[in-house]
User: Which sequence fits this backbone?
């Protein structure tokens, strides 16, 4: 597998490399690296900058791979992602706030943990 990032060299990954990359990403998540809103906003900013800096290259790739014109590439691909980034930025603070969730009767009594991006139910034994 080859991943190309604008303005950098190609990165060649083997199947065994993928496992170590995933482990590295999970370790960062487990250490709380991704929790601060500032970190998340910086990632969104970086993604937007990458799209804007590499817009021509992305449009050329979409033309080569899918036959899309520059206008079609913008309206059906690049513009959508930029719009999603703006939407995510706008709602990020609200989405990151802890919220109460109901516990299905079958899982009671439980302790619920909403401190992550999913709700985890810890079933207590009677």
Assistant:
């Amino acid at each position: 597998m080859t991943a190309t990032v604008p303005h950098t060299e190609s990165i060649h990954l083997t199947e065994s490399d993928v496992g170590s990359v995933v482990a590295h990403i999970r370790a960062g998540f487990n250490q709380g690296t991704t929790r601060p809103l500032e970190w998340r906003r910086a990632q969104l900013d970086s993604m937007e900058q990458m799209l804007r800096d590499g817009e021509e290259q992305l449009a050329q790739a979409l033309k080569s791979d899918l036959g899309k014109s520059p206008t079609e590439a913008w309206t059906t691909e690049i513009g959508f992602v930029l719009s999603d980034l703006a939407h995510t930025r706008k709602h990020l603070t609200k989405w990151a706030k802890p919220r109460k969730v109901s516990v299905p009767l079958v899982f009671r009594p439980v302790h619920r943990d909403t401190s992550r991006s999913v709700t985890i139910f810890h079933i207590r034994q009677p």
Confidence is low (pLDDT under 50) at residues 1-7. The chain has two domains: 1-33, 34-123.
